[in-house]
Amino acid sequence: MMIEPPIDELVKRVSGNKYLLACLITKRAKYLALTIPDEIEANSNEKEISIAAREVFNGEVIAKKA
Known about the structure:
This protein has helices at 7-13, 18-35, 37-43, 48-58. By secondary structure, it is mostly helical. The chain has one domain. Helix 2 (18-35) crosses helix 4. The chain is globular.
């Protein structure tokens, strides 16, 4: 079974911080679920969490530096 995007690559996008990665993907997925739930269901069979992970992998969503 292949996981896309690869977890190792996602962790590299947030400087190796797994906690930051989990928080970033979770917050983005919640935002997607609240703002455009009908569009997500109509356009794809992907869950919000998968879309959020792909966006982080593609560099569309980045973590802010504190």
